């Protein structure tokens, strides 16, 4: 039996090299030249399906190299009833927390204004108001949200978190459920979105939500592009209600060249690089889930298809 590598071809050498270091005996096939479908008992994919995988009726498990699996479950193409696991990797978590700490500190230390002053050759004094520390709100208190909170806490910032169900995180004031969302948002100077994408969270970053934030708040979205109603964000930035947005994910990727986000002075764009899965650490999870799948056991980080993550 064999593992089908059907993820990003440009990353195949990294992933398979790291996996073989753990278990050299594993046999691999590559999409689309995989041979007899009945010989495949496990599939590795990335954020999107490479094609229709429904013919792989002998597969015992599917592992994504991405944390998000919403695209994999859209439009069919997965074998019926086969367990699907998302990537929850220490390296991915570290890189997401680095991204959040960097952009929060950039906001705190007037990075945007200082860079503009340099472009204009101006020796500008932009003091940091130490008596007015911002409150950081994190939407989504899963693995990524909780780690980001732990890394931000030592900076002396006030943290609050919102999730679908109640979560207890040391040092974080927690809010849960839609009824608590207005109270949560009303105290967020910087709003971080790390929510999973579900039917309930699609379009959640909209005008109604933005209007509940304090004036001159900042948005950081590194979750999914479909969380954001783009026209609503442009409207609240142009009106001055929101002061800035940092966006790593978009409804269409790569972001089209003519998109208004590119030239907007209040938007910082990064090309979906906030959290990067690292084969050196993620390979261990893939090997573990391969062993679990072939033994008929539940996968680590197995997706609940009813919830969408």
From TrEMBL:
Gene3D superfamilies: NAD(P)-binding Rossmann-like Domain (3.40.50.720). It comes from the Bacteria. The keyword Zinc does not apply. Keywords: NAD, Oxidoreductase. Residues 103-274 form the D-isomer specific 2-hydroxyacid dehydrogenase NAD-binding domain. The keyword Transferase does not apply. Coiled coil: none annotated. Pfam families: 2-Hacid_dh_C. InterPro entries: D-isomer_DH_NAD-bd (IPR006140), NAD(P)-bd_dom_sf (IPR036291). PANTHER family: 2-HACID_DH_C DOMAIN-CONTAINING PROTEIN, D-ISOMER SPECIFIC 2-HYDROXYACID DEHYDROGENASE NAD-BINDING DOMAIN-CONTAINING PROTEIN. This is Glyoxylate/hydroxypyruvate reductase A. It comes from Dongia soli.
């Amino acid at each position: 039996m064999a593992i089908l590598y059907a993820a990003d071809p440009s990353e195949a050498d990294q992933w398979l090299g790291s996996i073989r270091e753990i278990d050299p005996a594993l046999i691999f096939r590559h999409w689309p030249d995989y041979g007899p479908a009945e010989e495949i008992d496990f599939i590795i994919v990335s954020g999107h399906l490479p094609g229709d995988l429904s013919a792989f009726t002998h597969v015992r498990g599917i592992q994504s190299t991405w944390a998000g699996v919403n695209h994999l479950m859209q439009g069919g193409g997965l074998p019926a009833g086969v367990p699907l696991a998302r990537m929850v990797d220490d390296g991915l978590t570290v890189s997401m927390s680095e991204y959040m700490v960097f952009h929060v500190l950039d906001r705190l230390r007037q990075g945007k204004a200082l860079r503009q002053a340099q472009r204009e050759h101006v020796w500008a004094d932009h003091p940091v108001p130490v008596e007015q520390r911002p409150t950081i709100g994190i939407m989504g208190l899963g693995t990524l949200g909780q780690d980001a909170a732990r890394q931000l806490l030592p900076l002396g910032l006030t943290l609050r978190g919102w999730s679908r169900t109640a979560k207890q995180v040391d040092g974080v004031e927690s809010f849960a459920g839609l009824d608590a969302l207005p109270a949560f948002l009303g105290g967020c100077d910087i709003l971080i979105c790390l929510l999973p994408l579900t039917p309930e969270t699609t379009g959640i970053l909209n005008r109604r939500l933005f209007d509940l934030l304090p004036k001159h708040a900042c948005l950081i979205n590194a979750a999914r592009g479909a969380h954001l109603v783009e026209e609503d964000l442009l409207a609240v930035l142009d009106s001055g209600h929101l002061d800035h947005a940092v966006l790593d994910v978009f409804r269409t990727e790569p972001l089209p060249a003519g998109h208004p986000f590119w030239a907007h002075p209040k938007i910082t764009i990064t090309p979906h690089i906030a959290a990067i899965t690292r084969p050196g650490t993620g390979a261990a999870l893939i090997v573990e889930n391969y062993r679990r799948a072939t033994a008929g056991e539940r996968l680590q980080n197995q997706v609940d298809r009813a919830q969408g993550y």
